[in-house]
Amino acid sequence: MTLLHALKTAALAGCLSTFAFSAAVSADTTVNGSGASFPFPLYAKWAKDFSKQNKGVRVQYQAVGSGAGIQAFIAETVDFAASDAAMNDDEISKVPTEKGVVLLPMTAGEVVLSYNLPGNPELKLPRDVFIDIFTGKLDTWSDERIAKANPDVKFPDDKITVVRRSDSSGTTYVFTGHLAAISDEFKSQVGHGKSVNWPKRFVGAPKNDGVAAMIKQTPGAIGYIEYGYAEATRQPMAILQNKAGHFVKPGEDSGKAALASAEFPTTDLPGYPGTPDLRVWVDDPEGEQAYPIATFTWMLMYQHQDEENAKVLRDFIEYGLTEGQKDATKMGFIPLPENVKAKVEEAMKLVGSSK
Amino acid sequence: MASNPFAHVVTKVSGPPSAVDYGADKLLRGVVWGAAAVILLLVAYIVFELGRQAFPAMLEFGPEFIYSTTWDVQAKQFGILPEIWGTLYSSLLALLLGGILGVAIAIFLTQDFLDHRVSNVFRTIVEMLAAIPSVVYGLWGIYVLIPLIRPGANWLHDTLGWFPFFGTSLSGPGMAPAALVLAVMILPTVAAISVDAFKRVPYKVKEAAYGMGTTRWEAILKVMLPSASSGILAALVLGFGRALGETMALAMLIGNSNQISLSLFAPANTLASLLASSFPEAGPIEVQALMYAAIALLAITLLVNIFGLWIMKAATRKFEGK
């Protein structure tokens, strides 16, 4: 009796799953992407809206991390990928040449410092203080340099609890990139990368939300998170001193000013003559109104695939460059400057079908 | 007619097993053996696969991996001593707290302190703790537990700071909140299995103890507890194993800092937390190092289990005379 029952259930389940499976297959052209979690909220919205507007087409994006995205791209298990650190020359050389690579900056973001002080006043951090906090040299809020930069604020006697990312992340890559560019000491002691050798005293928390929660819950804490995330959760953001010596608030305009100083390499992507190299970092932007910690983030595309997929991908990129840039502003990302957009428009033509 | 008057009975009730009986027996035997073999094969395969992927890292870093203290991906230096320390320290603290509490709950539920029905409800509630997702424990730790224990912890540090356990102040995440949450997480395992262990002790044993004139507490502590000791130890070993492998709640609460400190309020790190936080974005060499760390975790768990079994055996011999 029970056996019979079990058999019936199994048969029914089998039928259902076959049905579901065939439905999924017959549906649409689906392109799958995976990679960086930093632009995930934006790409996910693009994918959703783009799929809604275009019948018979589905774009899916999974936030698995830049590193995993690159691995998947090299292993050809995705149709496109995304990475906050683009791809290095070594990684590019691992992509099969019959598929080919083109790297497209699609949006940009800032990394901000958030903190937890009584009443959360506006906080200005001079460069030397900022460096000393993150090399672990400075560990108390009652330091006179902090007081001097913020004469109106009364600081508590609390220790500075630095909260960092415990997982390897593109946010850390961008943040340490700036610090390593402005301080040799930071570069040699802590380093530049997706996960670095932080002073042992620092507290690690997973993901942006983990760091944000930890800062909120810890009096005297300071830590780095993405601008979009801080904006959405209304965390206080420190005003940083830039290369020109000005104190600048994070935001869309200061981010654009930072990206404006980006100079793209004039050479081609290694191994791909004729493909522009669109990898550029603004580790320490020049402009007077530039917020110091900003970065592009890239989509990784194959140059050769079947025509159907290629068309969907090109349309998707086009959507991201036009409609998508409006979403970027709303969601706390920085829209691409016009000159960069033009470069991407040109480069995306390389996303084509098989030879 | 004169042959066998019991012929019809023989064939139906007490005859030799038929071919079908043999077949069913063989089939059942096969299925049971197969199920057991699948577990062994699975463990062997996991160990093999981990070993295969960790092999390059084992060759490169050797035993130094176990006793060095830096995890620096950029400099390609990998060492997991702080994580091993943090794993064992947090699990031991959790075992101490959760173990005492869990066995106490088991005594409370089984030794006639409560009406039968009430104790069943109580037991269900304790077991429900096991159904709460790890990440919820983590969030509860961040938003409720840490602010709750911070004043007390910092008072301890201010007044008894010379004592190594209170050597640092608690800023946010650290060993103490992690161990407390871990204790709550292993509580249902320890309590449920201990309850079963107490229930397995025949009622006559208790009656005999009372008959000899023991008080209630003498009966519980000197008769019931030793009689149930092998089951309780099994509960503790399982609870410890759970604590060693717990990941998400710890990744959120322990502070993920690679340092070795006796202080209960300093941030630390565990192997499972290291694996969970580093894996998603790890490069090829780091992945090998992480696999090596996973093998270390596996080895620690295995050693703990063997040690636990050995203690259980000793306890059974001493208290239950087997």
Structural notes for this entry:
The complex is a heterodimer of chains A (355) and B (322). Helix content of chain A is 41%, strand content 21%. Chain A contains 14 helices and 15 strands. Chain A has an 8-stranded mixed beta sheet with strand order 2-1-3-13-4-8-6-7. In chain A, β1, α2 and β2 form a beta-alpha-beta unit. Chain A is elongated. With 322 residues, chain B is an all-alpha fold. In chain B, β1 and β2 form a beta hairpin. The chains are: A alpha/beta (355), B mainly alpha (322). At the A-B interface, α3, β7 and α9 of A face β1, α6 and α12 of B.
Secondary structure topology:
The complex is a heterodimer of chains A (355) and B (322).
Chain A: H1 2-26, E1 29-35, H2 40-53, E2 57-63, H3 66-74, E3 80-83, H4 89-94, E4 101-115, E5 124-125, H5 127-135, H6 144-149, E6 161-165, H7 170-182, H8 184-189, E7 203-205, H9 207-217, E8 221-226, H10 227-232, E9 239-241, E10 247-248, H11 252-260, E11 268-269, E12 272-276, E13 294-302, E14 304-305, H12 307-321, H13 323-330, H14 338-347, E15 352-353
Parallel strand pairs in A: 1-2, 1-3, 5-9, 6-7, 6-8, 14-15
Antiparallel strand pairs in A: 3-13, 4-8, 4-13, 9-10, 11-12
Chain B: H1 7-14, H2 19-61, H3 64-67, E1 71-72, E2 77-78, H4 81-110, H5 116-128, H6 134-160, H7 175-200, H8 203-211, H9 216-227, H10 229-245, H11 248-253, H12 271-278, H13 284-320
Antiparallel strand pairs in B: 1-2
Helix pairs in contact in B: 2-13, 4-7, 4-10, 5-7, 6-7, 7-10, 8-9, 10-13, 12-13
CATH architecture of the domain at 82-269 and 291-320 in chain B: Orthogonal Bundle
Oligomer: heterodimer
- Figure out the total of helices of chain A: 14
**Helicity of chain B, as a percent range:** over 70%
Rg of chain A from C-alpha positions? Answer: 23 Å
Keywords for this entry:
heterodimer; A: 355 residues; alpha/beta; eight-stranded mixed β-sheet; three-stranded mixed β-sheet; 14 helices; 15 strands; 21% strand; B: 322 residues; mainly alpha; MetI-like fold; two-stranded antiparallel ribbon; 2 strands; 1% strand; globular
